[in-house]
Amino acid sequence: MKRFTFFLALLFITVSSYALVTMPAIFGDNMVLQQNSTVKIWGWAKPYEEITVKVGWDTTAYKVMTDNTMSWEVEVKTPYASYTPYEITVEGWRKLTFKNVLIGEVWLCSGQSNMEWSPRAGIVNKDAEIAAANYPNIRFFSVVPRMSVTPQDDLYGEWTECSPETMIDFSAIGYFFARDLQKKLDVPIGIINSSMGGSPIEVWMPTFKGNKEVSIPKSAEKLPETSWSPKTPGVLYNAMIHPLTNFVIKGFLWYQGEANEPNAENYLWNLQELIWGWRKNWTRCDYRYNQIPFYFAQIAPYNYGTQYACPTIQYGQICVPNQVGNSAMIITNDFVDDVNNIHPKDKQTAAHRFANLAISETYGYEMDPNKLHCPWSVYACKKDKGVLVYFMNAKELHSTTKVIDGFEVAGEDGVFYPAKATIVKDEEEGTLSCVELHFSKVKDPKQVRYAWSNTAQPSLRNEYNLPSSCFLIDRVWNGDEVLMPVEVEE
User: b/e string for 103-128 if b means 16 or more Cβ within 10 A?
Assistant: First the structure.
């Protein structure tokens, strides 16, 4: 009888301990909450347990009763950003206290190794950058890599203050982006890094239905089995993104694509699906009209084994903002020191370009769009015996080399031949934003492409020295045809 009583007592203690109020890992000391928002605070407790949430910036006691699923949540309005540290308490059968909480701007970084890449792994000016990383009002949250075939409610990670000891193992791009943002906005910055090296885009996607162009499972089938990443659609989204979707953020940064060399032709459609899927599932986001900013990096030139894999992905990436609202791309092809190294060490330039996008397009600071977006072309027309290519995002095109290489022209047979290129004025705009092409092996030009190789580093630059992206123009217009503007449904 005594043994039985002891067993019941032990069982009661065990059940009670599991019933104590608990919170997701994204809540913790040193966290940053999005300013001037209605944020969710949530967790789990015993069924029908009363939970009281108190926040340091107002006097309200937010009370909620758990349901039979053991879940609870409250919505709390946050003030404008400040460097005042707050406490948050959550009390049920036990009391949780989160200290040193700041209110500011929160961004999520994701992707594969170039986003995951830390200063410890090697960056430009490594030692000096690490030593100078004393920014206690920048906070880091690193998601521990996990995978799951079903969506999860929680993940592993913790918030830390930015210091040389914590910055050294955090996303270098995430850190430099946060540093630029804080200097401009003068508010606390929270950066969540949820990345994994070698991961293809399919594993980060929340939906498997695909669209009329691409089936996500079939896209994943083209990927080889590797020892460093899964390829099953959704398994990293389920474990490393889905648990964060109730946490209010300002925007997304994405740097990925290198692992999709084997199915490069699908990348345009897959990236669109990923953006739509993330936005649709994120709290406080009407994915069609109130869209969370999504900024991404074009992959850098690299000596891939598959011919044209790099420009195919790059071209898919640069086309995405024309299809998906409130998205934009940064260029990376001008700071590659070795095309046999897939990890450029200049993470500062990439982060600075991300920050410029956010500062201008998210926070409304005036900036010339040509300083944000790389020059490229979607329009070409026949002129005399040549072709005139019109560039956008450029008023003063110039080349870093005397001879402009990389332009090719194809006729009806689709076979491309090199073309001689000269920068000329746009006669209507009066700007140096056109390139005139001449060639001898194509009688009737139908297509034009530029920098269409895995290792191409375009020499064309705009007035802010941003390099051109590769591009493919699949129709060359006659000189007397008028190109009508196309409205893109966002």
Answer: bbbbbbbbbbbbbbbbbebebbeeee
Residue 181's closest CA among 116, 254, 104, 247? 104
Q: What is the DSSP letter of 102?
A: E
Q: Which of 72-76, 159-163, 312-316, 381-385 has the lowest mean pLDDT?
A: 381-385
Q: Whose structure tokens read 């969540």? A: 192
- Give the pLDDT score at 18: 47
Mean of the pLDDT values across residues 363-384?
Answer: 95
How many Å apart are CA 333 and CA 467, to the nearest integer? 7
Tokens of 148: 């799951």
Per residue in 320-334, pLDDT (tens digit) is 999 999 999 999 999
CB 368 within 8 Å of CB 462 = no
Length of the chain: 490
CB atoms within 10 A of CB 413: 8
Element (H, E) at 347: helix 347-357
Which tens digits make up the pLDDT trace of 475-487? 999 876 655 444 4
Residues 6+ positions from 150 with CB-CB distance below 8 Å? 238
Helix (H) or strand (E) holding 236: helix 235-236
Euclidean distance between CA atoms 38 and 436, whole angstroms: 54
DSSP characters for 411-427?
A: -TT--EEE-EEEEEEET
Look up residue 137 and give its two tokens.
């009002």
| Distance separating alpha carbons of residues 274 and 463, to the nearest angstrom | 33
Nearest alpha carbon to residue 421 among 434, 397, 404, 409: 404
Whether the CB-CB separation of 446 and 387 falls below 8 Å is answered with no
In one-letter notation, the amino acid at residue 154 is D
Locate 442 and state its tokens: 């194509």
Look up residue 145 and give its two tokens: 């890599």
Give Dmax over CA atoms of the chain in angstroms: 103
Q: Give pTM, 2 decimals.
A: 0.93
For residue 192, what are its two tokens?
């969540």
Q: What is the phi-psi region of residue 105: left when phi exceeds 0, alpha when psi lies from -120 to 50, beta otherwise?
A: beta
d(CA 57, CA 34): 13
Helix (H) or strand (E) holding 12: helix 2-19
